[in-house]
Design brief:
heterodimer; A: 420 residues; Rossmann fold; Coagulation Factor XIII, Chain A, domain 1; 2 domains; 6-stranded mixed beta sheet; 5-stranded mixed beta sheet; 19 strands; B: mainly alpha; 13 helices; 1% strand
Chain lengths: 420, 294
Amino acid sequence: MSDTVISVENVSKQYRLGEVGTGTLSHDLNRWWHKLRGKEDPYLRVGEANDRTTKGASEYVWSLRDINFEVKRGEVLGIIGRNGAGKSTLLKILSRVTTPTTGQIKIKGRVASLLEVGTGFNPELTGRDNIYLNGAILGMRKREIDQKFDEIVDFSGVERYIDTPVKRYSSGMYVRLAFAVAAHLEPEILIVDEVLAVGDAEFQAKCLGKMQDVAGNGRTVLFVSHNMAVVGKLCSQAVYMSKGTVKSIGSPAALIQAYLGENAKQDGSVSLLNLKSPDGKFTLQSVEILNARNEGASTLPNTSGFSVRITYALTEAHPQLRVGLRLHSYDGTTVLMSTNWDLASGPSMGCTAGTHSVKVGFPANFLNQGRYYVSVGADIPKVRAVLNAVEQVASFSVETLDVEGGRPGVTAPMLVWQPE
Amino acid sequence: MSSSDLAVSPTPPSPAEWTLVIRPQGRWWELQLADVWHYRDLLWMFVRRDFVAVYKQTILGPIWFFLQPLLTTIVFTVIFTGVAKIPTDGLPPMLFYLAGTTPWNYFSTCLTKTSATFLTNANLFGKVYFPRLVTPISVVISNLIQFGIQFLLFFGFLAYYYLTGYALHPDWLMIVVLTPILLLLMALLGLGTGIIASSLTTKYRDLTFLLTFGIQLAMYATPVIYPISKVPEKYRFWIELNPMTAVIESFRAIYLGGVIPWSQLGISAAVTGILLLGGMAIFNKVEKTFMDTV
């Protein structure tokens, strides 16, 4: 007996860009006319690979193109790739929210998908009512919810508020309750989009534990995440997607390396980016890694300090602009986050129109040996994101000069030990 | 011999093993009613949600459902009887209009609400799969509550006029037999036309404009504020073509007295059946990909 529970066969999905209007109508009529004469859909032959950064010639793009893979029972499959690689489209097709343009997917067993936490929650209803409503939307029968009700409330930890309308909940409580319902579905196949990014650390750990349990019970999990640390920890198999195609399938560790490697294209000191924010007012021009002597470097000794120089341009003044960076280790774990507000409570520099360079200094004896990646973003706190964190814009290696050969840990500071 | 061996040994994964196959387009006749049945708890949950959420934070609550038809009827009485002098077949005008608007309101709310199925639920439908037909069906059921309240109002007037000696001839047996049937007809007709409209408006919104004033005009093409007996012969055929005509006329006939138009009721049922099946087929086709075009 074959143990394959999901078989994705030549799945493609085409989208039409732009607005729905008279142009769409003429294409629809043309398509219908071809179909009537028993001919092939003329628009299936056109279409381009889905690369969101370049302007294409065709209105049609293939969001997915000839996807093939199989998932075995009990596997935890991580799907990784950059934004727009087609991960979410694939999950949508798997969850039957939309259909593929061509190809087919065969599935064995009950599927539950969690593309969003709290789908269908009604703010006016109480927590209790919403557990039933949400459970039913996710495909549970009332009897099943009755049985698990106490467990769900217990898992969510919002017992006290269970008879209060959820519109009075804090966002954290809301998410807890919603995930609790989903976690108690007992599907043979669980499909999860990046939903764990919410909630506090304790709750995230709880969610991951729950997902591991699900997999441990011989059920199958499909999981999309940008958090490489989680993918590496949780998944037994991974699919690496790029521009709508499957780039490779294999062990998570190898694919994560490949993924991070591809993103940090510029191994050298300077990453020339010229990335414009969606509103066009902020341009991230470059990110540089500088050694202690203020020279560009890609390999740094751990015994001396280094800095990251971020150069950006503003077309107009952004009085509350905050520029920040994140440092990730090779497996995607965030080492730290820092912004230009760190020591001042508000913006202290670089928010007038024009080009600005800001430099962030890191101390000596701070990072352990290994490879590190820098992400950069900008926002106006509590208002909006100006430029969503651009992942892995630059990378560098830290080498220890320690003859005894490294110590464990992400950081390797030299701490003061003294008698008391 | 050898060929039969090949056919039996190493068991190929038979298609029956797969519980679900996701294909580009479903067949139009795959209505997935079994799937809807499986989600019946969700259906009740939606009905409950609609019921509870509507009255939240209103003081008068269900009384609003009561006031609206009452005021409409009073306006109708003043305008159509008082000013325009449209005859009401010798029946008390208030009662006559209520007997028309009560069923008509049920039908028109079913139609307008189900016609917005895809647009109002786009967010939900985009995140999770369940048989989409559950949503319009739940709308039709939760509208029964509103109908019930308006019906009480109508029944109150009926009892008042009946007891004060007006020449009303309610057919009690037919009331018991036909009321549920008429309700079902209206529900299915509203559902059928509503889901056709909802399917046609996902990509091109033009129809939504037509629908909002179309439903108002349709009331005048249905004998809600006038009796069919007063319609000139040359228009009558067209009015009778309207499947709601027989329903409203029958409703009036059983409660207030009159002849039940059986044959037209039969035709109306047939039209309803066709619209409903057609509607489900279109709905079924659209629900698969509407997320890409909504």
